[in-house]
Amino acid sequence: xxxxxxxILLISYLYSQENKKVILQLSWLHQFQFAGYYIAxxxxxxxxxxxxxxxxxxxxNINISTVLQKNTADFVIGRSSLLIDKANGEDVVALFxxxxxxxxxxxxxxxxxxxxxxxxxxxKVMITPDAKDSASIIAMLNSQKISLDDINIIKHSFNLDxxxxxxxxxxxxxxxxxxxxLEDKNIxxxxxxxxxxGFALYxxxxxxxSAYIKENPELTQxxxxxxxxGWEYAFNNIGKTAKIIHEKYNTQNxxxxxxxxEGEALKKLVFHNNSNTIGCLDHDKLQKITDIYKIxxxxxxxxxxxxxxYKYNKHDSFNxxxxxxxxxxxxxxxxxxLIIMFTSIFYFIITKRWLITKNQLQREISVKTKKLNKQTxxxxxxxxxxxxxxxxxxxxxxxxxxxxxxxxxxxxxxxDDFKHINxxxxxxxxxxxxxxxxxxxxxxxxKNDHLYRVGGxxxxxxxxxxxINEAKVxxxxxxxxxxxxxxxxxxxxxxxxxxLCQVNHSDxxxxxxxxxxxxxxxxKKSGKNTIST
Length: 533
Hints:
The structure is a single chain. This protein is of the alpha/beta class. It has 4 domains: 16-98 and 202-308, 3-Layer(aba) Sandwich (D-Maltodextrin-Binding Protein, domain 2), CATH 3.40.190.10; 104-197, Periplasmic binding protein-like II (D-Maltodextrin-Binding Protein, domain 2, 3-Layer(aba) Sandwich); 325-376; 387-532, Alpha-Beta Plaits (2-Layer Sandwich). The chain is 47% helix and 15% strand. The strands form 3 sheets. It has a 5-stranded mixed β-sheet with strand order 2-1-3-10-4. A 5-stranded mixed β-sheet has the order 7-6-8-5-9, covered by helices on one side. Helix 2 crosses helix 9, helix 10 (238-248) crosses helix 11 and helix 17 (427-444) packs across helix 18 (468-485). It starts with a helix and ends with a strand.
């Protein structure tokens, strides 16, 4: 008996080393809309619960409604239209709703002359042709006595330029996406949101099937718990979350500023009844949504909402316990576990090597991708960030400043008489000077300050969230350290001249650089080895 127990424990240990592979299908392309899932994966919340999550980005060739039936994913992100699928006999269970109010709305240009929903009559409106996907918008139109026959429906191109260029008068959009782009382009707009007309539908509902939950009850709750934890972190740390998405989940090449703005816009749609609770699915609200679908003719019968909503959605605890009076249950459970472990050990042995090879390949691809990205933004000689990286960062900093009034300072400096050093001692020694200078600077600045080589011997440092007085103190220390520690040539003292300025509201990428450049040349004319502000 003792040996049997040891064997069971050994098999259990070996089996536990392999996390359960789970696939999540997103309903759109990577963006802040799915931040909670990225965070739960990157922070290890899924892994801590024994889950190895694969996140699948949306593909225009798939139909979200049929993903579960085709067994291409275990969990899927959907909309309130899942109620229609449920009414039609589909096996769907809603676990978690990220947004209590859908981000979907109608967007128009301010100069369109459309001041209210009723003004959309006879206008060109771009929406998806599937009524259930546009139900909230259609309901809003109907409430203002506008039927689909009263508007010219244009098939959605998902191209904002169609609205910008006035090819259409209105388009279905997300509050966290297109409005932010228009703001960046200084194009004024108006939003008609269904929730303002009494049609507050859920959105981004995490769902699976009852069959999957029955086969994987603990895994389902573990996935739910990790997801909830991921969303709590995401909305409490929007800046950090945006950086993770920007670096690892940015197939749309959105700027960091845009992703931060997305997070702030979406956070307003998340919480249940002004509480801190995320993910709730309220039966009364679901019944109201069902009634809307009935009025629209999309649902023709009642829905069992107890079957539709995951029973632990409202954060009930899940505990599997056996009492002394239920030993037969315990015995049966033990036998089942034993059978599962014995059958699983064979699977474990066969797949272990394949999984290791697959994981190694994935890591190698990830490492090579990061290396390639780093190479395109890194100066080959000094390993400082290059001019391309500076151009991208300064645009982000200017946007953050103009949107959130976050200050930053910038210094431009170069090595005094560097041509003389190259001509006298050779370019090899000149290169050594540049490399050592970068090492000194990197050792003195903060992690969130960034050094860039923008020319032969010219460098820029961006001091994030720093006003000019503080930046001047740091710059003075840098000037002194370089003079003290970089002067290794015979009879030569190596110094730098610095131009320092702080951002202002009229600045562009070119104007702030030009101001710093002029200040640096003032330092040169003033005898070098000094700072001009």
